[in-house]
Amino acid sequence: MKLGKRLQTLHDVVTEDYQHIWDCCCDHGQLGAQFLHSSQAHIHFVDVVPMLIAKVKQDLARFFPEAETRYSLYTQDVAKLPLAQYSGRQLVIIAGVGGDLTAELMTSLCCNLRDEVDFLLCPVHHHYTLRQNLQSLPLKVIHESLVEENRRIYEVLYLTSGKTGAAITPLGEAIWQQGTLSKRYLEKTLDHYARVAKGKPEAQAILSAYQHLTL
Ligand SMILES: C[S@@+](CC[C@H](N)C(=O)[O-])C[C@H]1O[C@@H](n2cnc3c(N)ncnc32)[C@H](O)[C@@H]1O
Protein backbone atom coordinates (compact mmCIF):
# COMPACT_ATOMS: atom_id res chain seq x y z
CA MET A 1 0.00 0.00 0.00
CA LYS A 2 1.43 3.38 -0.97
CA LEU A 3 1.15 6.07 1.69
CA GLY A 4 0.84 9.77 0.98
CA LYS A 5 3.89 11.90 1.69
CA ARG A 6 2.70 13.07 5.14
CA LEU A 7 1.98 9.55 6.45
CA GLN A 8 5.13 8.15 4.81
CA THR A 9 7.19 10.84 6.57
CA LEU A 10 5.58 9.93 9.90
CA HIS A 11 6.38 6.29 9.25
CA ASP A 12 10.00 6.95 8.26
CA VAL A 13 10.76 9.24 11.19
CA VAL A 14 10.40 6.27 13.55
CA THR A 15 13.72 4.48 13.80
CA GLU A 16 13.37 3.01 17.31
CA ASP A 17 11.91 -0.42 18.05
CA TYR A 18 8.66 -0.41 19.99
CA GLN A 19 6.60 -3.19 21.59
CA HIS A 20 3.39 -1.18 21.15
CA ILE A 21 2.43 1.40 18.52
CA TRP A 22 -0.86 3.23 18.94
CA ASP A 23 -2.37 4.60 15.72
CA CYS A 24 -4.72 7.07 17.41
CA CYS A 25 -7.55 8.86 15.56
CA CYS A 26 -6.66 6.25 12.94
CA ASP A 27 -9.63 6.72 10.53
CA HIS A 28 -8.49 4.55 7.56
CA GLY A 29 -5.71 2.97 9.66
CA GLN A 30 -3.14 3.28 6.87
CA LEU A 31 -0.27 4.36 9.09
CA GLY A 32 -0.81 1.57 11.60
CA ALA A 33 -1.09 -0.92 8.74
CA GLN A 34 2.27 0.24 7.42
CA PHE A 35 3.84 -0.38 10.84
CA LEU A 36 2.14 -3.78 10.96
CA HIS A 37 4.01 -4.52 7.75
CA SER A 38 7.37 -2.95 8.66
CA SER A 39 7.80 -3.55 12.42
CA GLN A 40 7.46 -6.27 15.04
CA ALA A 41 5.34 -4.08 17.31
CA HIS A 42 1.79 -4.85 18.41
CA ILE A 43 -0.33 -2.23 16.62
CA HIS A 44 -3.32 -0.65 18.38
CA PHE A 45 -5.85 1.03 16.09
CA VAL A 46 -8.04 3.58 17.89
CA ASP A 47 -10.88 5.75 16.62
CA VAL A 48 -14.02 7.05 18.22
CA VAL A 49 -16.24 6.23 15.22
CA PRO A 50 -17.49 2.60 15.20
CA MET A 51 -17.96 2.46 11.41
CA LEU A 52 -14.34 3.44 10.81
CA ILE A 53 -13.01 0.77 13.16
CA ALA A 54 -15.30 -1.81 11.52
CA LYS A 55 -13.80 -0.91 8.12
CA VAL A 56 -10.21 -1.10 9.46
CA LYS A 57 -11.05 -4.52 10.93
CA GLN A 58 -12.34 -5.70 7.57
CA ASP A 59 -9.28 -4.35 5.70
CA LEU A 60 -6.80 -5.90 8.14
CA ALA A 61 -8.51 -9.29 7.95
CA ARG A 62 -8.27 -9.11 4.18
CA PHE A 63 -4.73 -7.75 3.74
CA PHE A 64 -2.99 -9.14 6.87
CA PRO A 65 -4.70 -12.52 7.48
CA GLU A 66 -1.50 -13.93 9.03
CA ALA A 67 -1.14 -11.03 11.54
CA GLU A 68 -4.39 -11.50 13.46
CA THR A 69 -2.66 -11.68 16.85
CA ARG A 70 -0.43 -8.68 16.20
CA TYR A 71 -3.04 -5.96 16.32
CA SER A 72 -6.01 -4.75 18.40
CA LEU A 73 -8.90 -2.46 17.54
CA TYR A 74 -10.68 -0.01 19.85
CA THR A 75 -13.73 2.17 19.33
CA GLN A 76 -12.98 4.74 22.00
CA ASP A 77 -11.82 8.21 22.94
CA VAL A 78 -8.03 8.45 22.72
CA ALA A 79 -8.04 10.56 25.91
CA LYS A 80 -8.87 7.40 27.87
CA LEU A 81 -6.20 5.04 26.53
CA PRO A 82 -4.90 2.78 29.30
CA LEU A 83 -1.20 3.28 28.44
CA ALA A 84 -0.06 2.50 32.00
CA GLN A 85 -1.45 -1.06 31.68
CA TYR A 86 1.14 -1.94 29.02
CA SER A 87 4.80 -2.59 29.52
CA GLY A 88 7.63 -2.29 27.03
CA ARG A 89 8.41 0.65 24.79
CA GLN A 90 5.33 2.45 23.49
CA LEU A 91 4.80 4.94 20.68
CA VAL A 92 1.57 6.92 20.53
CA ILE A 93 0.77 8.56 17.18
CA ILE A 94 -1.80 11.35 16.95
CA ALA A 95 -2.01 12.77 13.43
CA GLY A 96 -4.53 14.57 11.28
CA VAL A 97 -6.57 16.23 14.04
CA GLY A 98 -6.56 19.87 15.21
CA GLY A 99 -3.87 21.24 17.49
CA ASP A 100 -6.46 22.03 20.18
CA LEU A 101 -7.76 18.46 20.27
CA THR A 102 -4.17 17.15 20.16
CA ALA A 103 -3.38 19.31 23.22
CA GLU A 104 -6.44 17.98 25.08
CA LEU A 105 -5.56 14.37 24.28
CA MET A 106 -1.90 14.83 25.25
CA THR A 107 -2.80 16.48 28.57
CA SER A 108 -5.06 13.59 29.40
CA LEU A 109 -2.61 10.87 28.30
CA CYS A 110 0.40 12.40 30.03
CA CYS A 111 -1.24 12.67 33.46
CA ASN A 112 -1.22 8.92 33.77
CA LEU A 113 2.10 7.65 32.40
CA ARG A 114 4.01 4.96 34.23
CA ASP A 115 7.00 4.11 32.01
CA GLU A 116 8.68 6.14 29.30
CA VAL A 117 6.38 6.71 26.29
CA ASP A 118 7.18 8.38 22.95
CA PHE A 119 4.67 10.45 20.98
CA LEU A 120 4.51 11.30 17.29
CA LEU A 121 2.25 14.27 16.55
CA CYS A 122 1.24 15.82 13.26
CA PRO A 123 -1.51 18.32 14.03
CA VAL A 124 -3.59 20.41 11.67
CA HIS A 125 -3.44 24.14 12.68
CA HIS A 126 -2.88 25.78 16.09
CA HIS A 127 0.74 24.68 16.38
CA TYR A 128 1.75 27.60 18.58
CA THR A 129 -0.89 27.03 21.25
CA LEU A 130 -0.36 23.28 21.06
CA ARG A 131 3.36 23.74 21.67
CA GLN A 132 2.62 26.08 24.59
CA ASN A 133 0.40 23.38 26.10
CA LEU A 134 3.02 20.69 25.50
CA GLN A 135 5.59 22.83 27.34
CA SER A 136 3.63 22.28 30.53
CA LEU A 137 3.87 18.48 30.16
CA PRO A 138 6.90 16.34 31.09
CA LEU A 139 8.01 15.91 27.47
CA LYS A 140 11.19 16.45 25.43
CA VAL A 141 11.78 16.75 21.67
CA ILE A 142 13.45 13.81 19.90
CA HIS A 143 12.99 15.26 16.42
CA GLU A 144 10.89 17.85 14.65
CA SER A 145 10.46 18.63 10.96
CA LEU A 146 8.11 19.95 8.31
CA VAL A 147 6.40 17.94 5.59
CA GLU A 148 4.44 19.26 2.64
CA GLU A 149 1.54 17.44 1.03
CA ASN A 150 -1.01 18.86 -1.41
CA ARG A 151 0.39 22.37 -0.90
CA ARG A 152 -0.20 22.18 2.83
CA ILE A 153 2.74 22.22 5.26
CA TYR A 154 2.56 20.18 8.47
CA GLU A 155 4.74 20.13 11.57
CA VAL A 156 5.93 16.71 12.71
CA LEU A 157 6.73 16.49 16.42
CA TYR A 158 8.44 13.39 17.79
CA LEU A 159 8.47 13.64 21.60
CA THR A 160 9.39 11.53 24.58
CA SER A 161 8.43 11.44 28.23
CA GLY A 162 11.97 10.17 28.86
CA LYS A 163 14.83 12.28 30.14
CA THR A 164 16.84 12.79 26.95
CA GLY A 165 15.88 15.38 24.37
CA ALA A 166 15.56 19.09 23.75
CA ALA A 167 13.06 21.43 25.37
CA ILE A 168 9.82 22.12 23.51
CA THR A 169 9.58 25.72 22.30
CA PRO A 170 6.40 27.54 21.14
CA LEU A 171 7.84 28.34 17.70
CA GLY A 172 9.91 25.21 17.15
CA GLU A 173 13.62 24.96 16.36
CA ALA A 174 14.71 22.43 13.69
CA ILE A 175 11.59 23.16 11.58
CA TRP A 176 13.20 26.48 10.65
CA GLN A 177 16.27 24.80 9.19
CA GLN A 178 14.64 23.21 6.14
CA GLY A 179 15.60 25.97 3.67
CA THR A 180 12.89 27.09 1.25
CA LEU A 181 10.26 24.87 2.89
CA SER A 182 10.82 26.69 6.23
CA LYS A 183 10.73 30.04 4.43
CA ARG A 184 7.41 29.23 2.76
CA TYR A 185 6.01 27.86 6.03
CA LEU A 186 6.92 31.09 7.81
CA GLU A 187 5.26 33.16 5.06
CA LYS A 188 2.08 31.07 5.25
CA THR A 189 2.07 31.25 9.07
CA LEU A 190 2.55 35.04 9.09
CA ASP A 191 -0.28 35.46 6.55
CA HIS A 192 -2.52 33.24 8.65
CA TYR A 193 -1.94 35.06 11.94
CA ALA A 194 -2.14 38.50 10.27
CA ARG A 195 -5.65 37.52 9.11
CA VAL A 196 -6.63 36.03 12.48
CA ALA A 197 -5.28 39.05 14.41
CA LYS A 198 -7.72 41.35 12.57
CA GLY A 199 -10.72 39.74 14.25
CA LYS A 200 -9.01 38.39 17.35
CA PRO A 201 -6.54 40.83 18.99
CA GLU A 202 -5.05 38.11 21.24
CA ALA A 203 -3.52 36.52 18.10
CA GLN A 204 -1.32 39.64 17.76
CA ALA A 205 1.14 38.25 20.33
CA ILE A 206 1.51 35.02 18.31
CA LEU A 207 1.94 37.02 15.09
CA SER A 208 4.59 39.12 16.75
CA ALA A 209 6.47 36.02 17.98
CA TYR A 210 6.65 34.65 14.41
CA GLN A 211 7.63 38.09 13.06
CA HIS A 212 10.70 38.01 15.29
CA LEU A 213 11.95 34.74 13.80
CA THR A 214 15.05 35.09 11.64
CA LEU A 215 15.79 32.24 9.24
C1 LIG B 1 -8.77 13.22 9.65
S1 LIG B 1 -8.78 11.72 10.52
C2 LIG B 1 -7.03 11.45 10.70
C3 LIG B 1 -6.62 10.12 10.12
C4 LIG B 1 -5.16 9.78 10.23
N1 LIG B 1 -4.67 9.79 11.60
C5 LIG B 1 -4.33 10.70 9.36
O1 LIG B 1 -3.50 11.45 9.89
O2 LIG B 1 -4.49 10.65 8.15
C6 LIG B 1 -9.29 12.18 12.14
C7 LIG B 1 -9.92 11.03 12.92
O3 LIG B 1 -9.91 11.34 14.31
C8 LIG B 1 -10.99 10.67 14.91
N2 LIG B 1 -11.17 11.28 16.26
C9 LIG B 1 -11.47 12.54 16.57
N3 LIG B 1 -11.48 12.73 17.91
C10 LIG B 1 -11.15 11.53 18.47
C11 LIG B 1 -10.98 11.08 19.82
N4 LIG B 1 -11.13 11.91 20.86
N5 LIG B 1 -10.65 9.79 20.02
C12 LIG B 1 -10.51 8.93 18.98
N6 LIG B 1 -10.64 9.32 17.67
C13 LIG B 1 -10.96 10.59 17.42
C14 LIG B 1 -12.12 10.91 13.91
O4 LIG B 1 -13.15 9.98 14.09
C15 LIG B 1 -11.38 10.76 12.58
O5 LIG B 1 -11.49 9.46 12.08
UniProtKB/TrEMBL annotation:
Gene name for this UniProt entry: trmK
Protein's name in the database: tRNA (Adenine22-N1)-methyltransferase
Top-rank taxon, per record: Bacteria
Species, as recorded: Pseudoalteromonas piscicida
Cross-referenced Pfam families: Methyltransf_18
Record InterPro entries: SAM-dependent_MTases_sf, UCP028234
